[in-house]
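Practice problem: predict the structure.
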Amino acid sequence: MQAVIPLEHMSIEEKLAAIEVIWASLTQCPEDAPSPDWHKVVLEEREKHVAEGISQFFGLQEAKKAMREKLL
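Answer:
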């Protein structure tokens, strides 16, 4: 089935609302929307970087603070 969405006639707010509805629908059955193979490759690379000490995790507040400092 091909869905036709009149994007050219929709406001940004309407487009974002449509995205939210679609995303909510997709997350109801995540097993029906499997991740592409490249997701696994990216996650493995990130896991390797953390294990090697190249990358590290930050809490949300720490990440926000770091971003603010970079922007100022």
